[in-house]
Amino acid sequence: MVVEHIPGPVTPGQIDKDNGGWDSTYTSKSGITYREYKQDEGYYKDYDYGGYGPFSSWACPMVATAIFLEGYGVHVDPYELYKVSGAANPAVAANAYLGKSVTVSQTYSKDVTLNLLKSGKPVAIHNTGWNEYGHYMTILDYDPTTDRVYLSEVHTGYNGRTDNGWIDIDKINIDTIYYIP
What we know:
It is a single chain. This protein is an alpha+beta fold. Helix content is 25%, strand content 25%. The model is unreliable at 1-18 (pLDDT under 50).
């Protein structure tokens, strides 16, 4: 999967990568600004992730959830989210902060996903095909003129792939979506 970088409202260099774990923001068409955290760039990158290994290799669920929560006005870095929720599941982690139920659909629907994005709501996703375990990311926006979505990748250059940008949603291989209706 290759994400095409299209110039837009991305502001690089917002904060030291090794400190806060994000080095860019994205402002969606609905006016929400998201910090685009990375699992391999924050102060937490070498911390243990629940016995699986380092955050930099295993914490994509928490990083995708931290980005997802930005869409609801919650600003929490991925490690703080993990400490408070103690969860590896994006829905459980988001519920710990939002106090409202996050829907998990393991039957992917492109229509549901695009309708959520059109209404200004982010969608955390799990996809297949990145590695043997799959991968979590967050979709932040939809552009109906190009029929593309803005994908916030949580790992820098994962397996030689690029990170944040606009992509055809059909190229993401989504199997599960996490959202608030």
